[in-house]
Amino acid sequence: MSSNTSDAHDHREWPGEFKFCPQCGHQLGVRHIGGQERPACEECGYVHFRNPGVGAAAVAYDSAGRILLVRRGPHATKAGLWSIPAGFVDYGEDVRDGAARELLEETGLTAEIGTPVWVATNFHDPAKVTVGIWFEASVTGGQLVAGDDAVEVGWFALSELPAMAFGTDQAYIASVIATGE
Q1: What are the start and end residues of each CATH 3.90.79.10 domain in the chain?
Q2: Which CATH number applies to 53-179?
Q3: Which one is catalytic: 42, 43, 136, 152?
Q4: Which conformational region is residue 142 in: left (phi greater than 0), alpha (psi within -120 to 50 degrees), or beta?
Q5: 152 a catalytic residue
Q6: Contact call for residues 85 and 152 (beta carbons, < 8 A)
Q7: Predicted confidence (pLDDT) per residue in 9-49, tens digit
Q8: pTM (2 d.p.)
Q9: Which 3 state secondary structure label does DSSP give 90?
Q10: E strands, the chain, where?
């Protein structure tokens, strides 16, 4: 198995990639596997498969049919724009628990997390591609207040949305409008 460290797509140029083998410490080369270049160790055979992270979103509506959104803070991706409350699922955390935690952290609200309503791959941060799962959320308590990486929260009619941060949220909302659900 050969290594090609001069290739334009060398893994050491990819953000966040290993430069040395996490198992034996030798410098990684590149191996072509499954039609893609993968960081690999010629010494011990370790191959690093860069897998996407998992994100979970909580989609809540009020009694008037308005959707709950958060305005992203100055240190968040797409700062100043609005999104459905969401974030990364922690290692060892159930995906529904992650959606509930993110909702609480960003909005101060607790909710019963229901069924998935949308699934999409998020490419808005090329260094950290994620697969997102949007869950229906029925608010059960708490007090609406912006927290964590959100600076504002609010309920919005689907026909009067603010500037949205992510195309995946926009696609979900467009599907809701198109189906009338």
Answers
A1: 53-179
A2: 3.90.79.10
A3: 152
A4: left
A5: yes
A6: no
A7: 344 455 557 788 999 999 999 899 888 888 899 999 999 88
A8: 0.80
A9: coil
A10: 29-33, 36-40, 53-60, 67-72, 82-83, 86-88, 109-122, 130-142, 150-156
